[in-house]
Each structure stands twice: as C-alpha cells, then as structure tokens.
Amino acid sequence: MSAKSGKAVVVTYPDEFAKHEIMELARAAGYEVAQVMTQREIIRSEYGVGVGKAQELEGMVAENGSKTIIIDESVTSAQANKLSALTHTEVVDRERLILYIFAKRAVTTEAKLQVQLAELRYQLPRARDSVRNSFRGEQAGFMGMGETAVDVKFRALKRQMGFIKAKLEKSRTARDLHTRERRKLGMPFVSLAGYTSSGKTTLFNRLTSETKEESPNLFTTLATTTRVVMFPNSKRKVLLSDTVGFISRLPTYLVESFKSTLDELRYADLVLLMLDVSEDVESIATKIDSCRQTLNELEVDPCKILLVLNKIDLLKDRGGSNIESDPMFKDYSTVKISAVRGDGLRQLGNRILERTGVNSQGARLTAKRA
Prior knowledge:
Helix 11 links the parallel strand 8 (270-276) and strand 9. It is built from 12 helices and 11 strands. The protein has helices spanning 16-29, 51-64, 77-87, 94-105, 109-123, 127-134, 149-183, 200-208, 252-257, 259-267, 281-297, 345-355; strands spanning 7-12, 32-38, 68-71, 90-93, 189-194, 225-231, 236-242, 270-276, 305-310, 333-336, 366-368. It has 3 domains: 7-101, 3-Layer(aba) Sandwich (Rossmann fold); 107-163, no CATH class; 185-368, Rossmann fold, CATH 3.40.50. The strands form 2 sheets. Strands 10-9-8-5-7-6-11 form a 7-stranded mixed β-sheet, with helices on both faces. Strands 2-1-3-4 form a 4-stranded parallel β-sheet, with helices on both faces. Helix 4 packs antiparallel against helix 5 (109-123). The two termini are 34 Å apart. By secondary structure, the protein is of the alpha/beta class.
C-alpha cells in the first residue's frame, strides 16, 4: 500500500466527533480534505450513500478537483465500484483508510507483518467482487477440476494469512519468553493503553527518558517498546510498555491482527488507560466507551485498569482541580496528570507502586533501558 496524497471529499455522520476524527484520519493518511458531506445513514444504497448524495458527490468532486472520496464506514466492493464509476474517483472506506495509515506508520518487521495480515483480512470478504470484476460471466469449473476463480482467490488469501500468522506466532512466543525471563527478576509489568493521540508516548518518554517519536498525528506508535522504570526510594522497578492506540469503530480483525502486540495488555499487572481530558465532554465519553470495548475484546481485567486523565494543563474553565469526580469516570480509579508539564507524576508513581504491591512515599522517577 503506497502513501496517499491529493484532495479528497469526506462523507461522514453529522456529529462533530465523527467529522473531526475522520478528517484527522484522512490527514494522517496524507490526504487534503477539500470538502465534507454528511449523511445520517451511510451504506444503505447501491452507492454506499443515498442516490441523491451520490449525484451530489459527482458534482462536488468535479468542482473541487478531488480524486478521492472517503466514506466513514465499511462499504462493499460493489458499492465502492459503482460510486467510483459514477464520480470517476477512487473510493476509500474507513477500514481501508486506517490500513493506509498503519502501512505508513509500520517500521518494525512485526508491525509490517501485522499490517499485512490486516490487509488480507480486509480483502477476504471482498475477494468475490474482485474476482467477478476480473472474470465477467464466470462459470463453475472456470479454473478446472470444479474450481472457480473465487475458490482460487480465497485459497491464496488463506494461505498467505496462514504464513503470516505463523511468523507472528513466533514473535509472540519470543516475546512471551522474554517476558517470563524478566518476571524472574521480580518486576511488575505495567502497560500504557488508550485512545490514539492521548499522550501515551509522551508519558512513556517522560518516565523512561526515552526519545520515541511524539506526534499529534494518529497511530504514531504501532510497535511495542518496553523499558525498566526505577523507583529509587522504594528500591523497586517496573517494566513499562507503550502500545498501539485505540480508535472508535476499530474493526475486530484489526484488533485480531495486532493481538500479538496487544496481548501484553491482558497479561499486564497494571494497565494505565490514558485519556485526553482537554477535549469536550462528548468526545471524552465516546473515547472511554471505545477504549472499554477494545479492552473487553482483549479480555483485560477491569480491576487492573488505572484511568490516567492527561493534559490537565490545557483545562481552563472545566474544573480541572476536581475533574476526576466527574460521573463519567465513576467506574474507574483515576489519577490526573500533565505528561508534557510533569504535573501529577509523583502521584502517578505512588499509584503504580501501590497497585503493583509496593509502598512508597513518592520517589522521583528515573529510568534505564530494559
């Protein structure tokens, strides 16, 4: 999957959170958003959008020169092909857009394999339409021995998936072995999780003195990095791990593809669930629900979660001094911080020590490589 660029028209739902998120995804993939169209129900018609909206899109792209239409939903190949034929543009759905970003961000061998697996899982349900577009009027037995071209395509995709899964299983086995060896040293395992762009990597760098790339762009981190964080006054250390961020309506197969990485959340002694509390209340509530859903899919024990309310330095008139008492956080144990400015890191350190079975009076955090 090559990098994307050029103007695009975005079709999304008529609420501010949806519009903001899909525009950020489009920009992260390399597109320039020329115009946004909203529709209450997407993927209902043969074009993926209403017939009237499809005709409106035809005029819109002709006027603003966009070469791509981004649909903020999953659409079938048939729907994408019909809309593409009508508008003479490339049609990209939400899942494909996320895959573009993942492919762009993948650096390590394991992350690239995970993206390849997700790509194959994306293609699998669309293989039938793909083959039909290539072989019009196909009859049973097209490839001989009773096989259709669809059968061959499916089998090839399954074979590729099996090959990549085997490689990822080796990576998982190696990681498990490494983790077991580290556990012999008696160090609790703490994992950072949360919505993409919530500040996980900023906090990771702050606690470990690392220099991992920090960016407001979505999905900056795809590969897991683990370091030892030291608590001098308690004479204790913990392993701290940074993971890929979550996003709303994340397809299950993407979670599955990255399971060798995300499994670390399930086996962690403590999960620091990061949340950007500088955003509007509706966005925060949506992101909490999205994170909860993803963690449930990964079978993470809710009792192991500590909700980290980040970016309190950006709060103005929202009651930053007692934001943790907001009813939306009632199901979680919370701590508030500013990863950028350093506010609350002593309290966070105390909570980490308490939750991992260590008592401390608030040691200064230092770090070294694992």
